[in-house]
Amino acid sequence: MIARFSHLCVYVLDQEEALTFYRDKLGFEVRMDVTMDNGFRWLTVGPKAQPELSLILCAIREGFAMDAAKAASLRSLVQSGCLGVAVMEVDDCRATYEELRARGVKFKSEPAERPYGIEAVMVDNSGNWFSMVQRRK
Amino acid sequence: MIGRGPGAALGAAGEGGRNPGVVYTGRMRVRASLRDLIRTRDLMRACFAQPISLDDLAAEADLSKWHYLREFRAAFGQTPHEFLTQVRLERARHLLITTSRPVIDICFDVGFSSPGSFGLLFRREMGKTPTQLRREARRLVRVPGRYPWAYVPMCFAALFGPPEGGAGGAAGAA
After folding, report:
1. Mutation site for B-interface testing, chosen from A41, A61, A64, A113 by largest number of B Cβ within 10 Å
2. What is the C-alpha separation between A132 and A118, in angstroms, rounded?
3. Pairing between strand A54-59 and A41-46?
4. B163 at A interface, C-beta within 8 A
5. What element of type H or E holds A104?
6. Please, what's the largest Cα pairwise distance for chain B?
7. Of A30, A74, B96, B153, most Cβ neighbours within 10 A?
């Protein structure tokens, strides 16, 4: 039986900038930050209120099964802003929207009423977007 | 705030301006304390090397000791003490893998006051003694201070790792 997700992978253009964004702008906590012998950096962060799920902020770099061409196309896909990563639940969408925007976080769309709640679409500093939903009770 | 927990789950439907007339009683109180609970987690992560008592944490959350304990467990699925122990053990594992500091020093570095209980808890959590873990990691580490590939999940090791299959099995970053 599959119990739950523990890690999700988010491909980022620059890990240091992603770290600043996720830690300082979104307020996530850093769970692990270690470097392998070839320089690959295992960097995980997560919402403080949800300790059991971590996001792997994965740099797009060449490796054994990731050749230069694949890395380049993945990089341009992320950068183009066409990749949606996940849906986040927020307790108050409009307040969180204002709070994040004040910190310089960009949004694809403002909070709006949807059949399932109030939703805004946030973009990270690589181009990945996340839907931020305050669920209808 | 982005997150999940009792606060988010019980969340305030009315705060977006849709139900301004709703009167919150207990729910509001629980939700308000999620930030406080998170602050105590931050405190434990930042100060794990020092002795931290339940009284300290409850005071930080501005709750009574037992109320704090209940709320923390409801929010995060573990007690503050379990969380603190986990933080200390993870830190100890990190130091065992990446440094050559003696085990006994690491035990005190990460905030344990007794090597006996450190050894016991470490073994219970990691399935091996600190010395065994270090010995295993040593065989896998090729550059001092760096992490062995065996400590990140296989799929990432396969994508970004060394071509000679140095992945050596998944198990345990997290």
Report:
1. A64
2. 8
3. antiparallel
4. yes
5. none
6. 65
7. B96
Residue B129, both tokens:
């003694």
What's the complex ipTM?
A: 0.70
Residues of chain B with CATH 1.10.10.60: 82-140
Structure-token pair, residue A84: 């949606």
Give the CATH number of the domain where residue A23 resides: 3.10.180.10
Tokens of A90: 């927020």
CB-CB contact of B41 with A131 (8 Å): no
Residue of B nearest to A98 (CA): B1
In terms of Cα–Cα distance, which of A17, A100, A97 is closest to A57? A17
Domain that holds residue A19: 7-135
B93 contacts in chain A (CB < 8 Å): none
d(CA B156, CA B87): 24
Question: Per-residue confidence of chain A (137 residues) as pLDDT tens digits?
Answer: 898 899 999 999 999 999 999 999 999 999 999 988 888 899 999 999 888 899 999 999 888 888 899 999 999 999 999 999 999 999 999 999 999 999 999 999 999 999 999 999 999 999 999 999 999 87
**Architecture of the domain delimited by B82-140:** Orthogonal Bundle (1.10)
Tell me the chain B residues in contact with residue A136 when contact means C-beta distances shorter than 8 Å. Answer: 13
Of A48, A50, A61, which has the smallest distance from its Cβ to B160's Cβ?
Answer: A61
Coil, helix or strand at residue A6? coil
Dist CA A11 CA A85 (whole Å): 9
Whether residues A93 and B42 touch (CB distance < 8 A) is answered with: no
| Per-residue tokens: B73 | 């467990």
